[in-house]
Design a protein that fits this description.
Blueprint (H helix, E strand, L loop, with lengths): L4 H11 L10 H18 L8 E10 L9 E8 L5 E6 L7 H7 L6 E3 L11 E3 H12 L13 H9 L5 E8 L1 H15 L9 E8 L5 E2 H11 L19 H4 L17 H14 L4 E2 L19 H10 L1 H5 L8 H5 L8
Parallel strand pairs: 3-6, 6-7
Antiparallel strand pairs: 1-2, 2-3, 4-5, 8-9
Amino acid sequence: MSYTKEQLMLAFSYMSYYGITHTGSAKKNAELILKKMKEALKTWKPFQEDDWEVVWGPAVYTMPFTIFNDAMMYVIQKKGAEGEYVIAIRGTNPVSISDWLFNDFMVSAMKKWPYASVEGRILKISESTSYGLKTLQKLKPKSHIPGENKTILQFLNEKIGPEGKAKICVTGHSKGGALSSTLALWLKDIQGVKLSQNIDISTIPFAGPTAGNADFADYFDDCLGDQCTRIANSLDIVPYAWNTNSLKKLKSIYISEQASVKPLLYQRALIRAMIAETKGKKYKQIKAETPPLEGNINPILIEYLVQAAYQHVVGYPELMGMMDDIPLTDIFEDAIAGLL
C-alpha cells in the first residue's frame, strides 16, 4: 500500500503520544519514548516504504511538582533526503491534569502575537497557545538524545545554515494540531532574520482547536494557507473550540437519525461555561472553509464524553483508512483501551 503525505503525517502525529503514562525524569522518559519510536519505525506499515530516523528529540517537558510529561516534540528525517524534515508535536496528555489546565483551557485571556504586526489587524492567540509555543521553543533534548542540548531553532540553523535550502512540515494532533500550525507560522515569521529564507515551510494539523482570533487566523491563511492542510473530523468536538458559534453546536453534535447521544446536565453546563468564557474573543479556525471529514457515530458508545473521546482519537485513523496501520492500544496503553 502506498500512503499519502496526510496519512504519513497522521502516523507521525500519533507516534508522539508514546510515553504519556511514563513518570520519572525527562531524560528517562525521553529514552523510553525514543526506544518505542525506533521500534515503531521498524514495524509500523506507513514507515516501511522509506528509511526514517529521529534526528532531534524526543524533547520532553514535565511541569514542576507534577509527574506526567506535558509536552513532547521530535524531528524526523528520511535517510538520504538531506534538508527534508518533519516536526511532530504531541497533543494533550490525557492523564496529565496540568496539561489540560495550562495547555488547553486558558482561553479567556489572549496574548498578542509577537512575531508580526499587520496594519488594521490585532493578532492575538489564546494564553494556552502562547504558553504551549513558548514551551516548545525552549525544549532541548537531554544528553545522549539526538540533538542534545539544542533548541529546535538552534538545531535547524545548525543543519540548514543561514541561507540553506530545506523543506519542513510541522504536524500534530489535538493540542498538537493547534501548536503545529502556530509553530509553523512562527518559523515563517522569523525567516530572513533568525532562519534561512530558503526554507519551504508547510503544516498538516489534525483535530486542533482554534489557536487565536479572526485576525490571527486570517494572517495565518495569508502567510501559510496554501501550505496548510487542516484535517478535522466533523464529529470531533475539539475543532469546534473555541469559536463561540461552533461551541453552540456541541449539545446536539451526536444527534442523528441513527443515534442520539446527548450531554448530561453537568456536561451541558460545561459547554455553556466554555461559550461564556470565549464570548467576544472572536476565535476563528485557520483554513476555516476547509470541509471536515464526515464522521460516523459509534452506536455502541452512548455516553457523550466517551463518544467524544472516540471521535477525537479513533476517528482519524478510522476515517483515513489507517486502523490497521496505527496501533492505538500500544500508543495510548490503558488511557483509551476501553474505547477500542
